[in-house]
Specification:
5 helices, Aminopeptidase, 164 residues
Amino acid sequence: MALVIEPLQQIDLQQATEFAIYTRQLLFPEVYQSKLPHDLIHFSQTYLEHLQGACFVVKDLNKIIGMVAYRAYNHRFQLDLPKNSVEVVKLFIQPEYRRQGLASQLCQALFQHAEQHHIQHFYLHTHPFLPAAEYFWQKQGFHVIHREWLQHYDTIHMFKTKSC
């Protein structure tokens, strides 16, 4: 196993987009039939080209087996967040690669990148049906700011600030 954690490269864009669509289908099968969200349609613009976008992947022999990203937060929820917040999204590790610390390593790489780009405010939401997600994000420095029922899901909104 030759695992490599790195920023998403243009050459891996198609594979990354397909991986993100696959994980969406796996985690949220009831929304898979719906229209793809803007960030998946415009993956490069959202995560590679935007100043408030970034994506890191973990690869095993050039195959993406994990991912995490952030994008400019669009304030689609009724939350009082700083205007320049980014939203952490797309954290997923293939099941056979879990329990090796890869998710934490991906997040560390993403947050180091954010620090270099003077990004200080991080928002995310997760759901209780994802095993240990709330606990994992708390270990990454996030705290719960709001809980609510949205459409089909109990939703946990979390936030963290990092001083640059």
